[in-house]
Design goal:
about 270 residues, mainly alpha, MetI-like fold, 10 helices, about 0% strand, ABC transporter permease subunit
Length: about 270
Amino acid sequence: MSRIPLSALIGMVVTAAYFLAAIFADVISPYGYAEVVGNVWDPVSAEHWLGTDSIGRDLLSRMIYGGQITIFVAAAATVLAFATGAFFGFLAAVSGGWVDQVLSRLVDLLMSIPALILALVILSVLPVSIPVLIGVMGLIESTRVYRLSRAVAVDVAVMDYVEAARLRGEGTIWVIFREILPNALSPLVAEAGLRFIFMVLFISTLSFLGLGVQPPLADWGGIVKENKEGIVYGIPAALIPAVAIATLAISVNLVADWVLTRTSSLKGGRG
């Protein structure tokens, strides 16, 4: 068994720390997410390890609860994107013909519109809530997953064992889940980490623009927005969530790079 490189190990530890903090937010948070406990932008102290925010709430507590919302929304949207995109990508590759053409041209049309602009247009006419955010982000990003899934499945669909399954009379759904999916899983797992980070950046951007998570709840992007005026006065409250976003992105990317490298090496060894 090969050793895990230091970079991937660091990524795993940091990522696990963020996820554990999100899961146990109610236990480890010193204050409630909307509880006013001090003055505006109090400095770091023994009572407030990261100081307070623009209305006197404990910034550490806001960061913990904001991380919970950020990670939950990003993870749920990633799952939705992969479930939808992978299924239709595999379906297009296995079916071919007009099914492939219709799905691929529809995806081309959606991908021709920048994802952020499309999300802003949709959210401007819908009531903004966490389920709506998850649905919009997941469906928009499913187009990227569709492209990858179809490309991988096209190569798998011509293999002998897939042809044998078709000759046995197996249905399309059976072929997708029993033949295509197990052999296309590795690149999708590596891509899942990258898609998750894009979802974190996506929801943070939407919240910063005012169409993401709505007050009094806040994700990390919303916390940046709430405290951005403090930058003019040298208050670092807006920079702390930005650093959290960056460190989470880097740590997940380190793990995803290792997974992709390990998958490629294993395939090369089998070859």
